[in-house]
Write a structure and sequence with these properties.
The protein is an alpha/beta fold. It contains 13 helices and eight strands.
């Protein structure tokens, strides 16, 4: 099975190890992975800011980048949800509608691809520690990925998975929301951080780097000794 890695901006710039771990996990379960180096941002920040027509040029570029890919897999529910959203954005466009539909149909977040496409819940990881999982808003509500990450975590030898109180609450990042509504965003991430601390977990795991950077920043500023790791990193720990 051939997979193209969709690295996403935040992983590429701030957490390149997440991309490496994603590739290694996919290769370990038998996938042949390539990296189209022409890929750019999916366009979500400008789209969310209301610049639809400008963003369409980025979307068209990304459609062309992954045109020949069998599957497109990324370590971000939010960004993959954006790729899938192209289908609705280009609906009615005779030139791009069908291509947008094809990209949406073959684009998956990492845990979604492993569990729902490959049917794999055990990737052979070994990781010892108390772990709590943050389900990001876009990943659960837009992409519909809710159970797959926990199924994978529950199969990792040594992991004690602790339920996060009010797990479905937003962490306050929300793309440009954190910039436009900084005070509200700050209160939201404070509440989320409090719930993480309440679990007494050693590790906070998630599937979106934006959320992890946001929550991790708050935990760090409070001097909390809780390590923040992406799901791909823990799946690749052996």
């Amino acid at each position: 099975m051939k997979v193209s890695l969709f690295i996403t901006c935040l992983s590429d710039i701030f957490a390149s190890n997440v991309g490496k771990d994603t590739v290694e996990v996919l290769e370990r379960v038998g996938c042949e992975v390539d990296f189209p180096d022409a890929q750019t941002c999916c366009g979500q920040p400008s789209y969310n800011s209301g610049y639809l027509e400008n963003t369409k040029e980025t979307m068209k570029h990304m459609i062309k980048v992954f045109r020949d890919s069998q599957y497109v897999v990324g370590p971000s529910g939010s960004c993959v949800a954006m790729l899938r959203g192209y289908e609705e954005i280009f609906r009615g466009d005779p030139e791009w509608e069908e291509e947008a539909r094809k990209l949406a149909a073959k684009s998956f977040e990492l845990s979604q691809f492993l569990v729902d496409v490959l049917g794999i819940v055990d990737v052979g990881s070994h990781f010892k520690g108390r772990v709590t999982y943050h389900p990001s808003c876009h990943m659960t509500r837009l992409l519909g990925v809710k159970d797959a990450p926990k199924k994978l975590l529950n199969q990792i030898e040594g992991v004690e998975l602790i339920e996060l109180p009010n797990a479905g609450d937003c962490c306050g990042f929300g793309g440009t929301f954190a910039v436009k509504n900084a005070v509200i965003s700050g209160e939201m991430v404070q509440e989320k951080a409090n719930h993480v601390v309440e679990t007494e977990a050693e590790y906070l795991v998630g599937g979106d780097m934006a959320c992890l950077i946001n929550i991790g920043g708050r935990l760090s500023r409070e001097g909390r000794n809780i390590k923040v790791v992406h799901l791909a990193e823990i799946l690749n720990y052996r």
